[in-house]
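To whoever is on call:

I kicked off a structure prediction for a single chain this morning and the downstream step that reads the tokens threw a length-mismatch warning. I double-checked the sequence; it's 74 residues and nothing unusual in it as far as I can see. Pasting both halves so you can look.
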Amino acid sequence: MAPVVPEPRLDDLVMRLKSAATELRSGELAPERAAALVDECARLATEAGAELDRRVRMGAAGGEPVPGQLALGS
């Protein structure tokens, strides 16, 4: 089993999504603020998905692409 490696970028995105969800659930937001927060959640979720995809493509260790996957340009 591979060692668990800290993932600060992904952890930060998850923390920000959780914070936004808590704020949305409070029910105390003006409609404009709630809409902006929903847009922010969508952006954060897209970033998290892209980060996860990048990590899968790079493999668990060593930075080598997973066999059968094309490397994405940055």
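Update from on-call: the warning came from a stale cache, not from the record. Cleared it. Sanity check on the structure: The mean pLDDT is 80.
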